[in-house]
Amino acid sequence: MTLAVYVPAVPEFAPVVRTAEAAGMDVRAVGDYLELATAEREVVLRREVTEMPTAVWHAALTGGLTGRIVSFTPRILHLATEDHA
Amino acid sequence: MTLTSPSARPPAGPPSPRVAGVDHLAFVTWKPRATCEFYTEVLGMPLVHAITATGWVTEDYPDFVHFFFDMGKGNRIAFFYYFGLPEEEPPSDLMHRSRHLAFHVDTEEELLAWRDRLKAHGVRVTPPLPHELIESIYFDDPNGLQLEITRPLRTMSALDARDAELTLRALADVAESPRPGAQALWQRKAELVRKAELVRKAARVRDDKEVTGP
């Protein structure tokens, strides 16, 4: 299954979208959300790409996740498809 | 909050009663002098009412004083002082941070002015901390009650409410599952987001058919 993150289409999550784009993820609108998706089996988002408040970074997955979390630290968010070891 | 379909209609009958905001929040203090000085002199909230009584509420209820400060907009914060009641242990750090009271200001200037005022009175206060929709400063009252002053970063919208609905539906599902956790919540939320989109698309197709006719 595609690896995807959903973020609410609101201003405070725009840095999450830019960070995902910098990681090569595609962006499309899905209702109230932006779907950040990749055909890759894993992706690493780096917080240093944008200036983002700590609280927003740690809420980056609040819109939903299709996939699983490999690592979620104050600096990186490493995601993988659920079937990827 | 409803965790049912947004299209579900409330049952017919008389209109549901609604409350109109906060009348008062009540806490317990063992430091009446410091509490009164803090709320009136530091926070500028007038003392507006006090009751003194014997403990009539239950058989072992202590004699007490119950006093109220005006927080503005008809909202009051109240404290009980109980005679002879041993002081409680302070809460854990997590509970201290979680059970808090946040006051509202409209602008960044007001938030910073409050920070200056608190520091001028010797109150330890955090720098402004931005969250998603609000930016806040945090400090404690003399009782160890965590207080917050917060300003909006943007107006809450209908989208925020729809998103909250999906979050709470996901939480209700995951909290009752064998292994609740943030990852499970976000995975369930993604399913609900995609489902909501399918429902929205189906409704649009139906509406289009109704407009164009058979």
Automatic annotation (TrEMBL), chain A:
<protein>
    <submittedName>
        <fullName>Uncharacterized protein</fullName>
    </submittedName>
</protein>
TrEMBL record, chain B:
<dbReference type="InterPro" id="IPR037523">
    <property type="entry name" value="VOC_core"/>
</dbReference>
<feature type="domain" description="VOC">
    <location>
        <begin position="21"/>
        <end position="152"/>
    </location>
</feature>
<dbReference type="InterPro" id="IPR004360">
    <property type="entry name" value="Glyas_Fos-R_dOase_dom"/>
</dbReference>
<protein>
    <recommendedName>
        <fullName>VOC domain-containing protein</fullName>
    </recommendedName>
</protein>
<dbReference type="InterPro" id="IPR050383">
    <property type="entry name" value="GlyoxalaseI/FosfomycinResist"/>
</dbReference>
<dbReference type="Pfam" id="PF00903">
    <property type="entry name" value="Glyoxalase"/>
</dbReference>
<dbReference type="InterPro" id="IPR029068">
    <property type="entry name" value="Glyas_Bleomycin-R_OHBP_Dase"/>
</dbReference>
